[in-house]
Design a protein that fits this description.
The chain is α/β, with parallel strands linked by helices. The protein has a single domain, classed as DNA ligase/mRNA capping enzyme (D-amino Acid Aminotransferase, Chain A, domain 1), CATH 3.30.470. 18% of the residues lie in helices and 30% in strands. Strands 1-11-10-3-9 form a 5-stranded mixed beta sheet.
Length: 191
C-alpha cells in the first residue's frame, strides 16, 4: 500500500501581515482539498486521508503524478459551489455517482506539484506549469497585484486569497506561516 501524503496547511494572515515580492498570490477556492496520486493506480483522497476516487470519476490526471489541489464545483457565473462537491461525497451507488456527476459537475484545480518535495514553491510551480495542457492549474499572481486580486475576489464573492512564499518547501501535515490565508482584510504590499 502506498503512503498517502498529508497536505501542508496554512495559517490565517494576521492584521499586520505585509506582502512583498517574496510572496505569490492564489485564489482561495471554496471546495474540498484533495491529493491526486497517479504514480500507481489513480487515487484521490481528502486532506484527512479519506479515499474519494469513486465519487469523482471524472478527475483524470496523467500517469506518474502527485498533485495537491481543490475539487471545486463551478457554476456558469464562475461562483464556487461547495455544496455541489459535498453532495457527491459519501455516495457509493454507481448509478447515483453518475447521476450526481451530471447534475453537479466539478473540476480538480491543481495548486501544487508534489513529485519532488525537495523543490521550493517557485520551482514546484515551474514543474506544475509544464502540465498546463493536461491539468487545470490555479492561476498565480505576484504580490504586487494585491489590489487587482482583492477587487476580483470581492466582486466575485470568493472566499479569499492564499499567499505563498516563493522559497517555501512543502512540509507534509504541517501548518506553516509560509502559506497564509487572507480572508477579511487586504494586506499592505511593500516592494
Amino acid at each position: 500500500m502506498r503512503k498517502m501524503i498529508q497536505p501542508m496547511l496554512l495559517h490565517h494572515a494576521e492584521e499586520d501581515f505585509v506582502l512583498s515580492d517574496a510572496w505569490m498570490l492564489e485564489i482561495k477556492y471554496d471546495g474540498v482539498r484533495a491529493i491526486v496520486d497517479t504514480r500507481d493506480e489513480p487515487i484521490v483522497y481528502t486532506r484527512r486521508g479519506k479515499e474519494i476516487t469513486a465519487q469523482f470519476p471524472e478527475i483524470s490526471i496523467p500517469k506518474g503524478l502527485l498533485l495537491d489541489g481543490e475539487i471545486v464545483g463551478f457554476e456558469g457565473d464562475g461562483f464556487h459551489r461547495l455544496n455541489w462537491v459535498q453532495r457527491r461525497l459519501g455516495v457509493v451507488n454507481p448509478e447515483k455517482i453518475m447521476e450526481r456527476m451530471r447534475k453537479f459537475p466539478i473540476t480538480f484545480v491543481a495548486f501544487d506539484y508534489l513529485n519532488n518535495l525537495s523543490l521550493d514553491y517557485e520551482n514546484r510551480m515551474v514543474k506544475l506549469d509544464e502540465l498546463a495542457d493536461k491539468v487545470t492549474i490555479s492561476p498565480r499572481h505576484p504580490a504586487k497585484d494585491i489590489d487587482k486580486m482583492w477587487a476580483f475576489i470581492q466582486k466575485s464573492h470568493l472566499e479569499g486569497l492564499v499567499a505563498k512564499r516563493l522559497d517555501s518547501t512543502y512540509v507534509e501535515g504541517t501548518r506553516t506561516y509560509q502559506w497564509r490565508k487572507i480572508k477579511h482584510e487586504k494586506p499592505e504590499y511593500r516592494a
